[in-house]
Design a protein that fits this description.
The protein is of the alpha+beta class and 229 residues long. The protein has helices at 59-67, 79-87, 125-135, 142-148; strands at residues 17-20, 23-27, 43-47, 50-53, 96-99, 102-107, 110-113, 158-164, 190-194, 210-212, 221-222, 226-228. It is built from four helices and twelve strands, in the order ββββααβββααβββββ.
């Protein structure tokens, strides 16, 4: 079936916390392999001790969030996010439909029954943040994510981080039209890390910095939780 190759696989393993000791880590790239200018230059970053989940949040787990009335609980949301979900009448992830009391998900193969073990997707930053608040946890920073990337399984969905999209130290915008792509967008965006089932071949790397506004939901985006230690 055409859309099957764009379906994330099930997250059936137990959740584990992968720990990172505090220290100074190297992030970014100066390599000669293909990369975008916003991934450079390579530099040092101090990171506090933390842990991130070994897997993504699933539909089953997100349904608990919905069923607990989280979309009606203003305490969980950024002020801007609360205004957004109310003005847009949002009460579930994009492409979800309640059909006779049963949740279905609109996919490239049409409307299908929601698989509870597949990672929740098409989530805005507002929703990812609210879910983390509901769990008493948080989203990882992009630097925590990169420092632990070799220990986690990533690539199913772009993962929201709590990092604002801004230039690395000594970033130089490329001259001409090429510089329009990244440097011009370093405002009012959040960074997503990883890749997704729809990412073009050769674009999956741990230094890749994707970026979207907090209300973006159409992308193949998901949630990985983090906590401070």
């Amino acid at each position: 079936v055409y859309g099957d190759k764009f379906k994330p696989y099930k997250e059936t393993g137990a959740q584990e916390w992968l720990h990172l000791a505090e220290g100074i880590f190297t992030v970014g790239t100066n390599g000669h392999d293909f990369h975008y200018d916003n991934e450079a230059p390579k530099h040092k970053k101090y990171i506090e001790a933390c842990a991130i989940s070994n897997r993504l949040v699933t539909n089953r787990e997100y349904l608990e969030f919905i069923n607990d009335g989280a979309y009606k609980n203003f305490n969980l949301w950024h002020s801007e996010g609360w205004e957004y979900i109310n003005s847009e009448k949002i009460s579930a992830p994009l492409y979800w439909q309640d059909v006779d009391g049963e949740w279905r998900h609109y996919t490239l193969n049409g409307l299908e029954k929601l698989d509870p073990d597949v990672p929740v997707q098409h989530i805005s930053f507002y929703e990812a943040f609210a879910y983390a608040e509901w769990k008493g946890l948080r989203l990882p920073t992009e630097f925590e994510w990169e420092a632990l990337a070799d220990k986690i399984s990533w690539g199913q969905l772009w993962e929201w981080t709590y990092s604002h999209y801004e230039p690395y130290p000594n970033f130089q915008k490329a001259p001409g039209a090429l510089g329009e792509y990244n440097g011009k967008f370093m405002l009012n965006q959040n960074v997503l890390r990883g890749a997704s089932v729809a990412t073009s071949e050769g674009h999956s790397r741990k230094t890749y910095r994707n970026f979207f506004h907090a209300d973006s939901r159409w992308i193949f985006s998901g949630i990985r939780l983090a906590k401070s230690l």
